[in-house]
Design goal:
heterodimer; A: alpha+beta; Uridine Diphospho-n-acetylenolpyruvylglucosamine Reductase, domain 3; Enolase-like, domain 1; five-stranded antiparallel β-sheet; globular; B: alpha+beta; Aldehyde Oxidoreductase, domain 4; 18 helices
Chain lengths: ~325, ~775
Amino acid sequence: MKFEYHQPKNLKEAGKYLLLNNSIPFSGGTDILALMKDGIVNPDHVVNLKTIDGLSDIKFETGKGLSIGALVKIKEISQNQMIAENFPVLKIAASEIASPQLRNMGTVGGNLCQRPRCMYFRDDFDCIRKGGGTCYAFEGFNKYHCIIGGGPCYIVHPSDLAVALLALDAAVIIYSDGKQKQIPIDDFYILPESDAMSETILKPGEFVTGIFIPELKSEARSTYFKFKERDVWDFAIVSVAAIIRKNNGIIEWGSFAFGGVAPKPWLDNAFNKSIAGIRVASGSIENVVTKAFDNAQPLQLNSYKIPLVRNILRRVITQLSA
Amino acid sequence: MAVKIIKSKNFVETDFVESLAEVPVEEYKPWPENDKLKIVGKPVSRIDAYEKVSGTASYTTDKFLPNMVYGKILRSPHPNAILKNLNTEKAEKLEGVLKILSFKNCPEISWYYDTSLLFDKNLRYQGDEVACVAAISERIALEALKLIEVEYETLPFVTTASEAMMSESPKVHGWGNILDGKPDTYVRGDVEKGFNEADQIIEEEFNTQVVVHNPTEVHCSLANWDDDKLTIWDSTQAIFSVRDTVAASLKIPSSKVRVIKKFMGGGFGSKLEAGKHTIMAALISRDIGKPVFISVDRKEMNLAVGNRPDSNQKLKIGVKKDGTITALSHISYGSVGAYPDSAGCSWPLKTIYLCPNVKTEEYSVLTNSGRSRAMRAPGHVQGTFALEAIIDDAAEKIGMDPLEFRLKNYAETDQVFNVPYTSKKLKDAYLKGAEIIRWKRRNKTPGSQNSEVKNGIGMATQIWWGGGGPPAYAALKLNRDSSINVFAGSQDLGTGTYTFIAQVAAEVLEIPVEKIKVDIGDTDFPYCPLSGGSMTAPSVAPAIRDAAEQMKGKLISAAAAILNLPEEELMYSQGLVSSIKEKDKKISITEIVSKTRNRELITNGAREKNPDGYATNSFGVQFADVSVDTLTGKVKVNKIAAAYDIGRTLNPKTLYNQIHGGIIQGLGYALFEERLLDRKTGKVLTTNLHSYKIPTIKDAPEIEIAIVSQFDPLNSSIGVKGVGEPAIIPTAAAIGNAVYNAIGKRIRSLPITPDKIIKALYS
């Protein structure tokens, strides 16, 4: 394996190096090094973003919101007191990622841009996501794959942070063509039907520099439930990020996002609408929950995810509205 | 001391092996219970703790020799293919590449019981060896693998035992897919008559998955030649087996091969046989005149160095209303992969419960996948999961408590060989385990708790061999400073062999453990058996005792000569030989040794023979306390209570370590681990430790252990039975039964993953 290693001093230089043919950004390395060792990614240029100043800050401005630099470590988010107080959903999501060792190394930008965990993608199968002609999971071992939004590739997006950020209506800040711009996180991620070889809209020369999260109204309550098979160091089978505002026993407003169900962090606007205005004590929650994902199209081995995601919704809503 | 040569029959992993062994003519009286001993049975810290904690312990992967080079293996990417052509020209031109070994330039070396070759043109699974490159660095060797041009003719393949059993399926070998063309069968009594006598007949089918050993330390060998002498540093459980396989493969005398293994990061059965990589390292090293190190990576660990076969088991049990079992039958199918091995799993069913009418059929089936190898209690782990589930179901059917049902059908003797056990304290284990877990709290009606998270309690019984036996030898050298060297060709897999050897010698000679230096893991030392089958401690410990007792005798006879007293008037105690009559007439071992001309004393000990007409088995039970989240299907194991009859405890610290490890590995088998094979391509999907899920410490339950045995009075003068395998056998079965007790639904396939529980609860 041979590649050229670049150490840009600023965003502009990084952007220039990332325009080179077959170039990839590098920060914590927890995912990209494994991809390179396994021969899934074979770059000619590796651009170390850690040499760029100003991407490692967590800043909160009252009345506006929270900015987090792309190089902030996952561990910092999981241990930041201000985030714990104002954005519990984000803190919990960060704490649930991987293992302590990986949280110490992994960065926010890397977490958002990590590649999927599909076993076919990660091994020597010439699958659609690697430019081949077949999705092996479609008729193969698809227990961990998507139940909605799939085709022609059926991955689930592996990021926990992205799911929390989607519920928080965050924006991803990217460097593009000499400037930084904010992209709503729902638009940052794409479905395989538009491009099966990429999970994001990023084009050569572009990279993530940070995220921005609008301030939450103080009475909002939030949480993140990550269901994994093993107690630690496991990706979500299904996860739910939930934020609600409750008044007099009525859920006035709710924002939910889902992980482990779709090729991108999943937002169901109809569900969010239907949750608004329902009375906690009534049977309405049950009515709303049983309709969630009724348009899902499970594969042979993953229909269990439908009752699973509904059950998690029940638990999360009960917990937040208690 | 007088010795004689006898025919000895010992149980080794999956079969009885008869061998000639030298044993002492006289035998020692068994030691009393541990309360009366000073060092054995006490929680002595590992004597190799400093090396392990400080990092100075030299594992095979740590070994470095000047001019050492590295080998890497090219493996077939196809489940079934013929190697049509191999072009190594480009790879050979890469700077730093020293040698490429393949079918083109390697002598034909028989492998897998003469069904294949070291380099065979028939490649029968993804991972079969195609070529081996040696280069000045591992990186260059890996680069070179990519430059080898291979032409494969791919062939149809089979991935499951059920598919392979069909007559029209592709054959892995010319001779068919069922090993020996028929099942292993066993019949006792008349099962038809037995089922006719039953009030209730229960029939069930169970499936267990393929799991992979995945020890922390990967398989690796370093080979180096000096003149015509070959030394191999290997990560192995069986130094003598490696020596003999290497010698036979290279057609050189065993005396020219020395195999060394000092420390090891686990094996679990996968390292009981010589690896192909070991032979390749030896061949290339001889050719290029440099030491060659070959290790496999984690992907190769999950493809090509063994696994526990899967099983499909059909069980049938007949019971009377009063709880008497009248008949048992068992048919099992297991995939051993592409080359012969055994997938049988009927033994627990034949022996645990009293039953006059038993019939079993065990099919070992070949498929185009990685070959199985012995894995921690081969057969018993699969078999116990199914047997203990149907035992619980039978008890429920007749309205009897599962523990009471087991006690009702307690077998006092070995029913297969019709001989008594040297000791069996399973009843005590049942009662002790039930007390620890508070058995009475279990749900009388499974699944009856009215809550989101439901708790359950289940139990399972374990039987294994583990009595060890001869031949096992050890040499003791007493030095002038009264320190002692022990030399024995045994192995420490991380289990504590070093420490118990020192304890036994220290106990006999009544000197501190610190005075004993233990040297093992070297074929230049006296022979000891491979470390598998839970037989290291029961085989080796008595040989150490023999050598130490003889040393005591030598010291008395030397003291008699020095003090001019008859030997009968002398006694040995705590490093001193003294006169029984006149207390002031005494001499220390340091003085004795200094006065001898050679300034050291040497003895050789041997393991005594096993008693005739008895079976030695270990027995145990595990009780599991679990919670099942009915919303997510997740099983949390809260506690395992483990009660065992393993004869004498040599060291509670290392004993508990082994039981903890077995339970955690058993929990992985019950809940997480599964080698997944893509059926369309025949390729393994779980090739790293992300997708192959071993339990983490967060998944580990609270574990409480009770040892109900003092010592086995007949098996050996030490009376220890091995615990390595017993520790894992009942865990998955106990968890399975506890899950049933919690949710009232029986999950009949392993691992018990959330999707299976959700399907059981919501469909």
